[in-house]
Amino acid sequence: MLDYAILGLLKNRPLTGYDIDKIINKSIKNFWSILQSQVYKELKKMENNELIAAEVVIQKNKPNKVIYSITEKGDRYYETFFDNDKLDISKLCDIKILFLIRMFFGSHTDKEHNIEFLEKLRKSFIDKIASLELIKVNIIDVAPINNNYVNNHWYWTSTVNCGIQMCNSIISWIDNCLVEIKKQ
């Protein structure tokens, strides 16, 4: 999936690895955790597979800059991401929610620890909503400016809205859990 994300960014304009990482941190990271090291590893792999091309720009008194752009082969590969007949949509529904592992084994500790855990988790999701609201306000800074800007902005903002709705839903679930645990 990371290759598709990178190609999607490069469809808008050529970017350096640093630029790609910066855009990911201000947009995609709100729903998918990606490390900087993963980005650079994937860029190398994509270049080897000829999905992207790298142009080295010599800079005076600075390290050289590598600018990546999508190739024709990369463009064809990227288009497969939108072929609903070939895409295994069920894989896109895979959800890994780490705090549920802790909750699943909640009976292995006492009620007070579980209440404390859920209260901290609740606060964390409230903070996450504030962070997402800030991303929504600032997304204009990273949404690509091109002929497709209005559409890009809407789609990018919709992912932030999804994150906010998910956080609110989880907070509601936490509130219900707290009520039930306190009854025990």
TrEMBL record:
Residues 99-180 form the Transcription regulator PadR C-terminal domain. Residues 6-79 form the Transcription regulator PadR N-terminal domain. Coiled coil: none annotated. PANTHER family: TRANSCRIPTION REGULATOR, PADR-LIKE FAMILY, TRANSCRIPTIONAL REGULATOR YQJI. This is Transcriptional regulator, PadR-like family. It comes from Malacoplasma iowae DK-CPA.
